[in-house]
Amino acid sequence: MAATQHAQNLKQDSQDYLATALLQLLAHTDLSDLTVTAVVKRAGVSRMAFYRNFTTLTDVLLAHFSPIISGQFDDILAHVPQDQKLTALGTFFTDLGPTLRLAVTRGFEPVFQQLFDENMQRFYAATVTWPGATPIQKKYWTQFMSAGIYRIWREWLLGGQQESLETIHDLIATFQTATMQALQAATPQRP
Question: Which residues fall within 8 angstroms of residue 86, CB to CB, at 6 or more apart?
Fold first, then answer.
């Protein structure tokens, strides 16, 4: 049992070293210009250690950011009152702003888009009531809202945050309400 725990600790250490090294290199170099060789050299681990844990450099970023983003969504879902969830998400994304800027600048924004979308699907599944909506309507409404909200936050964060956070929250809430009402109006009523 102790050997298994030791192996798990070594694996986690390798993953942490690789993520730290990759983020350090991304401070000055685009993701597309980085190599596994450069990252393992910076991390002080072998190529074998890299390939035991990951297939691509994007996998390193997904493994690093997934628990951060999912953990924040989990905390909001479990501990924030329903009427304050959108505000809590806004605060989280405001805090994430510098990292998003780096992701856009260095070419790894798709990592954030993927993780945001996955977590927004969970968020809406847990927080939205779906009176009479079909599974197809739920699926596409969630995709539509996730993409729209991501673009709003992205534009606001990268555009210098000209509007107040309250204005952004109100805008998102208005879009959510209006699109949900339109979806409900389009849903055939069952006898």
Answer: 169, 172, 173
Cα 27 to Cα 98: distance, rounded to the nearest angstrom: 11
> Looking at the chain, which runs of residues are DSSP E strands?
none
pLDDT tens digits for range 160-180: 889 988 898 889 889 988 988
Specify the residue for token string 């210098």: 160
Q: Are residues 168 and 84 in the same domain?
A: yes
The CATH number that applies at residue 49 is: 1.10.10.60
Residues 147 and 176 in one domain: yes
The answer on pLDDT for 60 being more than 80 is yes
**Listed residue (88, 84, 22, 82) closest to 57, CA to CA:** 22
Does residue 175 contact residue 148 with C-beta atoms inside 8 Å?
Answer: yes
91 and 46 fall within a common domain: no
